[in-house]
Model the fold of this input.
Amino acid sequence: MNALQATALPLVGSLLVAVYWLVIAAVSLVPANNAAFARRAAFPLGALAGIALAAFGLQAVWLPTHSLTLPLGLPDLPFHLRIDPLAGFFLMLLGSVSAGISVYAAGYFREEPSGRLTLISLQYHVFLASMAFVLLADDAYLFMVAWETMALSSYFLVITDHQRPEIRSAGFLYLLIAHLGALAILLCFGVLHGGRGDYTFDALRAAELQPAWATVAFLLAFFGFGAKAGMLPLHAWLPEAHPAAPSPVSALMSGVMIKTAIYGMVRVIFDLIGNVRWEWGMVVLTVGAATTLFGVLYALMQHDLKRLLAYHSVENIGIILIGLGMSMVFIGFDHPAAGVLALIAALYHTLNHAVFKGLLFLGAGSILHSTGLRNLNDMGGLIRGMPRTAFYFLIGALAISALPPLNGFVSEWLTFQAALQATILQHGVVRSLLPLFAATLALATALTAMCFVKVYGIAFLGQPREPAHPSPLPHAGDAGGMERYGMAWLAAGCFVLGLFPTSFLLMLNRVGVSLTGQGLSEQALAGSGWLWLVPTAAGQASYSPVIFLLVIVAVTLLAFLLVRRFYHGRARFAAPWDCGYPEQTSRMQDTADAFGQPIRHVFGPLYRMDRQLPGPDDAEPRYTLKVEDRHWYWLYLPVARAAEFVSSKIALLQQGRISIYLLYSFITLIALLVFVR
Amino acid sequence: MSSAPGIAFQILQSVFVVLAAPLLTGWVNQCRAWLQNRSAPSILLPYYTLAKLFHKDAVFARDASPIFRWTPYILFGCMWLAAGIVPVLATGLPFAPAADIIALVGVFALARMFSALAAMDIGTSFGGLGARREMLIGFLAEPAMLMTLFTAAFISGSTQLTTIVDTLAHRDFAIYPSLAFAAVAFLMVLLAENARIPIDNPTTHLELTMVHEALILEYSARHLALIEWAVAIKLFAYMTIGIALFVPWGIADAGDWSALPYAFAALAGKLALAGAGLALIETLLAKLRLFLAPEFLSTAFLLAVLGMLTHFLVKG
Done:
């Protein structure tokens, strides 16, 4: 009896948290408890529930699978719920990251008018609950209902500032691509179902597909979930929707929502379809590598901070896809230990990206909140007015640049280790291609570091760039208490995930075992302790972030103390030296666009650039540069034109006269009588 | 994984590298002066420079943030850490399993990121310019470096530098074509990462071409001394990585005190040759235009990738 209760607890608990979020959402609407309730109660209580959800998820990873049927839904079509290690891991991600974001939101929305705030609170908590239901769903029906609720609630959050037309069009683009994806997912479930049985995941799992149909299902799932994740070429909504949404919502969408797409991909491809083929892995790898490079190269071109972060989300989704693809290749060639290692790397990066990208979006939100600026070219020297925000943002920037000993480095390290397993593959071409994908990853990571030197150097360091205008920068205050707690929570996450990777490795190993039936090699598990991360075998590769951090802190402090001890310490302050140039003004600093100039030079053909140079005798020389996404011109606009053309032809049917419509019905009836006899 | 003699070796090696690094810089400068028909400065000149800088009064720009003040210590710490990872005198050091070649590249990246941030901190035009160029060179050099190291990792089946060196040092003499490619690529990365000709000129202060010097323009006195020292350690570390990967013979095992004098003599000889070679390269080549640097480094990257593919072809 007790054992039964113990296995049921995570599922029931998670369900309660999701329902509780829905209750908060509903109570937010009660007019008497409007703004003050949302600020003081709804968001903080939602954050507490998030921590509880994380605890339930963590528990579920270590417990056997448990399922439950709810007497809800349509007649004869109840909702099925199930929690297994994979769902538990993603519930932990959702709970822990959303806890930080909710705390932050309690501070961020403090000046919001009450009518809007109640709506934001409603949609925000419905959004959270729908994500929990996506992760708990055990049949295609509930999954699609939750998936669509997630898309719609986040759509309404994106268009919070719906008075501005550009925000409405960003929202529309998001909704459009979300629904293209949803359509593909629906079709994928249809293919998996194959006209037999019902739509529970158990039935879909049991269905034996022919290889051709399995490939169709894979492609549909990859396309459908990829649209939500923001992989190439379906990424266009991310750089539009993320800047449009309020910052906590951007953090939630980029940190958590696009991760549900990764969950969906893993669930459908590894679990429901099963029998992963290595060719699929190569498709995922290729798309992942292209997405990674594209994302970071376009991020380097941006000067809008939130757009830049959105392009980095595209890049990181690519990194996750590289891990997933490698895992599929290894499993397809029947090397489950290496496959699980790559899967662990991908899922670890999923969690890491949720934490540091959430943190960075929150930091961007604090800058926006305190200065009203999103354009990097107007910023500068924010570290003086906002030292705490600057500190948290630095942690996020170091983490996303994959620098040791923070968390981004661990997942990158694991991905490299997985790529180095390529020697065990029998297929010569694939074996030599895998390290090339690792090389792509290395290039993208180094470019990310460049991009975050740009972001941090331009926003927080240096001098304010536009002193002529009445600039808000010198008066910019630091983030408020709740905002800081939210950021501190996620910054602590960057450290915990970076310093104690082995516990997460073992957790993800459970996920791998539950999906593929096998886990990491015995030597890896034997060699791993809390101090040592050993993914394959002790002699082959190991990494100890704690020792690493201790040594680097110790030698840095030692250097500092030695200098303190033996050096006289006299110092004075003066104007900057700058090679003795006296006419230095703050406008001579690099701007965000100037910082990307070498990249434009090296990778020029990848961008669509429109440059206007001043003539030699211009009295007021202006230099303008516009960098656009090529995908708009070769993919999106032609598709939009084609859709418009087709719908204009279909619109010919619409005559507005009832006799014509009756004629259509008549013709349809005749046609049906001919065909269906 | 640790034993008393191992730890003693570890500390000995770390201190040795920190103290000996300026000597290597002095030797390279001396060789270069000879090759250029100048009368050479003392080989100890870098030590005198460091002592001089440590005695000066520090001057800060008024708006310097904590990042500016802490960066020299972080740089020095990173390079010191790197000196602890690389098997300079002995393999099997106790600290080595804590950080492998990927972490080593990560340490260099960490140092680079902080030096670029510190350069942008004051808000001068040259600082931003230096940071931008440094990161340009960095993002090209880092993947090439990783690929070079991966080639060695594939040969020995491990990413731990100490295991790699053990495998390579104790093998039968055989020519690995993949290592030949990797060695050329590594040399090119070494030149770029250490701000050497043809990518950067360590002796220039010409505003339009400087990269590394633009980064440290605002530093003075003790901070400048620490940075210069860190740069010397970095050159030393890179050279010893190259020696460990491509000519590892003579290296001792940790705890084997009797092998130490021989290892020490072998290292001194190899470093003297490598330093002279570096001076020769710097004398024979001219500095490349900045936008030829990407071509130089992508050549290095392609060579490293070719090396890796060669490994698979020859083996498979």
Summary: Chain B has a mean pLDDT of 86. The radius of gyration of chain B is 19 Å. Chain B touches chain A through 82 residues (CB under 8 Å).
